[in-house]
Amino acid sequence: MSHIVVPQKTYIYIFLTLIGLTALTTGVAYVDLGPFNTVVALAIAFSKMLLVILFFMNVRNSSGLIRIIIVAAFFWFALLIAFTMSDYRTRTWTPAPDSWSSAPPTHP
Amino acid sequence: MSTATLEPRVHAPRNYLNADYGWKSWLFTLDHKRIALLYLVSITFFFIVGGSFAVLMRIQLVDPQGAIVQPETYNKLFTLHGVVMIFFFLIPSIPAVLGNFLVPLMVGARDLAFPKLNLLSWYIYIVGGLFTLYSTIAGGVDTGWTFYTPYSSTYSNTQVTAVAVGVFITGFSSILTGLNFIVTIHKMRAPGLTWFRMPLFLWAMYATSIIMVLGTPVLAITIFLLALEHLFHVGIFSPALGGDPLLFQHLFWFYSHPAVYIMILPAMGVVSEIIACFSRKRIFGYKIVAFSSVAIAVLGFLVWGHHMFVTGQSVYAGIIFSLLSFLVAIPSAIKVFNWTATLYKGSISFDAPMLYAMGFIGLFTMGGLTGLFLASLATDVHLNGTYFVVAHFHYIMVGGAVMGYLGGIHFWWPKISGRKYPNGWAALAAAIIFIGFNLTFFPQFVLGYLGMPRRYAFYPAEFQVLNVMSSAGATVLGVGYLIPLIYLFWSMRYGPIAEPNPWGATGLEWQTPSPPPTENFSKIPVVTEEAYAYAEQEAGHE
Questions:
Q1: Complex ipTM tops 0.90
Q2: What is the SS3 assignment for B419?
Q3: Do both A17 and A27 map to the same domain?
């Protein structure tokens, strides 16, 4: 596999972009976007993550095996989220029996 | 032969043990074999520390009122026993000792892919261990090895943070070891050593490494969040701060259930090597056994919720986790059936490693089958939190993983040390361990079924007979563990010199001298046959 030399200025551009996106995250935090607050914050974070993976970790020029490992890591993370959410999203499907009081217990 | 025995130092060829002397040659070594020995000494130390806590617990439980310590101290004893044994003995045991020593030899390489990273992993392990020892001296921790919130994050006034930091640090050691093995197995196999010619030990180490690399970071993050809440009261797990305690259990068990497979998969790899060698046969269904390791690694990640059936987890999630827990039994059963089928019409000999392997199969099967009781939603309600669970996981982690580890140590000891040990003593020790183990832990199945909860410093008098049986068994088990420590130590100086291949085994590690030279092979070997070509070997002799 031939070794690809990435020009130094690419790293500088990416670094500056990451700093810019960090500033954007901070700036957006002062604007109320309603339900899109989280969406926008996550979108910026995702972009930053992609830049780090593709350029700083040089996955852009890496072999298929390295890419599979990166994908596997995300797949594993997705499993963690999906199965955890299988608990959180279905906890209320079966309501608590009427005899279970939501009032705080009284101590003798 | 006899001349060499009398004057080993004069005639001993250069090998990794006599290549250099002095403490610097050990503490700064990059040789995977020496690093394996550093781990061997370290984990033996932690085994003795963790075992000492267990001894105190078993003495305490001889008397229903508690024989020697206060409940608060007892809480610390079982916590530290669990932390030390799991994070500082069982998880690094086979991968860091036998894996480090054998992976490069088995793939026909001169070292692991990243020797400096390998040494770093040992130092990280030691730093993590020192943190944990400090916490023990500074007062200990009483949360249980599972650090369940909100008790650990909000209420416990013991050394939670110090122990958590120790576990956090040592996790990185595990990640580096796994990373090293994955790259080595992918990139450094000798010419001709295709994936399906690899010994099953390598498949097991590969599957284990996947778990180490993908699972351990989640534990690190979880512990970090725990420390964040404990120190700065950031609401993550504590309901009082707006968090969810079950989130901790989800994150913790996402790593800690697969961690059981970090312990047992390598032991299964060891057993595959031993069964093939001492029945002089290729493992029955080689490919399916290889793939079953990977299947266990993958499915093992999807069953963590079975630890949470009675915690308030959604019953629907519980159903999924229960089903998946049953599924993971399939690849485990495949291995057991295939080992048994390998024995069929084999030319079996019962040397010490084989006795440990047979012990493994029996004890692991019992541990696995009792796991099905706990994977069932209904029976788990009765058994959860009782001694049944304690017995079940000790059958897996001690009966399985430790038997596998000891079997592996006995199998490769001539290669590691260049010396043989007394086979009679080794066979006796294997028998004592098997008997002592069952006497210790079988009564705990009964105790749990009868309703004795775990983690209590005292108990109703009606449970005393079974508890005394268990404590008596622990004494026998302790003697069983002590005997190999003595004769293996003895053999390093007085044992007969071992030839390169004392068991007549196949595999590249047996084609180099015992102990191997620093560079492992004078010439990188070329592999021309399948793994476990015992039939071809026998045919060649005839």
A1: no
A2: strand
A3: yes
Q: Which domain holds residue A18?
A: 1-61
Q: Residue A73: what residue type?
A: A
* CATH number 3.30.420.10 is the correct assignment for the domain at B27-341+348-541: no
Q: Do the chains contact at A80 and B314, CB–CB below 8 Å? A: no
By CA distance, what is A65's nearest residue in B? B186
Preferred mutation among B222, B257, B316, B328 to probe A, highest tally of A CBs within 10 A: B316
* pLDDT tens track for A49-96: 999 999 999 999 899 988 998 998 899 999 999 999 999 999 888 777
Residue A30 lies in a domain: yes
Give me the mean pLDDT over the B229-253 stretch.
Answer: 92
* A80 close contact with B: CB closer than 8 A: yes
DSSP sequence for B381-397: HHHTTBHHHHHHHHIII
Nearest to B317 among A65, A72, A86 (CB): A86
Contacts of B218 in chain A (CB under 8 A): 80
Q: Give the pLDDT score at A98.
A: 75
Instruction: State the DSSP code for B497.
Output: B
Report the domain count for chain A. 2
Span B205-234, pLDDT tens digits: 999 999 999 999 999 999 999 988 888 989
- What is the DSSP code (8-state) at residue A100? S
For residue A86, the chain B residues in CB contact (below 8 A) are 314, 316-317, 320
CB under 8 Å to B49, separation ≥6 — which residues?
Answer: B84, B88, B133
